[in-house]
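Appendix B, Record 12. Input sequence as logged:
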Amino acid sequence: MPKQRRLTAAIALVCALTALAVPGTAFADPAPTPSATAPVQPRTLEEVGQQIDDLYRQAAVATDAYNLAEEQTKQQSAQIVQLAQEIVKGQEKIKRLKDQAGATARMQYRNGGLPPGAQMMLSGDPETFLNGADALRQGQQAAQGVLGELNRTQADLAAYSKDATAQWKNLEANRVKKEAAKKDITEKIAAAEKLQDQLKEQEKQRLAELERKREFDSQTAWLSTGILKEVNSSASEQGKKAVKFATDQIGKRYVWGAAGPDTFDCSGLTSQAWIAAGRGIPRTSQEQWAQLPHVAIKDMRPGDLIIYFADATHVGMYIGDGAIVHAPRPGRTVTITGAGSMPILGVVRPDK
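Logged structural output:
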């Protein structure tokens, strides 16, 4: 069987995710009323905006879960291929060892089935006996070595198969996680878009103004702490490359689960920027927060990643002067905004 076919067979064998609001501005609840007689409860535009934000935040949480499962799936798939290759090599080695043992057995058969020791005793020649004894001892050691190597190789094959089976189970578990996360993401985004679609154009504009004002107020409050007086570190060479890559993507659409080249989600943008700078980092914002070195906000420099919200579900890249570049959410594009426009969890540095 050609080697490629053996590899395919082995894989098959082990086979089995902002202006101030006008008080009293109302928006009718788009959901159907509980009964024909129940009055429609009005909601303010601010409340509708908050509900839309909450839905997108929930979609962001599910997106992180999907991206993590996707990364784990890639790693497990690579491990399975590697294990399959080891299984193929082990099978080839066992065949070679068995052929070697078979050759010894056939030689003994040709000698009348007598053990080598008996043949030497019957030779009647002392010199032949002495020479043969040394050869016999070497032959026995070689035979024992073949047997020992055969046993070790068979044990290795059993371990490889067990590991491959475990990886396939993990792969299937991650597939289920990805599908659940994908369903959650699409449902939340669809619900948010439905709310937006039911707004009148004037209401949409007003909602955008409210959002800009909220971000502006948050950024102003952050800057009023005097934080930028302490933030004055220069970017590293790798950091400069990461910032250039990220800012070069400005205007490209946000798509959940995307990591370029034409669309990005928040962590897809930051991870690809640092890969372009020559340093691989975790794919998701939560894993970036968990695995990368933390630095104080006052010590941050361009290229560092700012992680947002208590559950670390959003990330942007600091580019200096109190600003970040980030991929905000569905329906938006990669853009620059204030670093303090969202609740900051902390800062991590990929090249520390």
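The beta strands are 26-28, 42-44, 294-295, 305-308, 314-320, 323-326, 335-338, 344-348.
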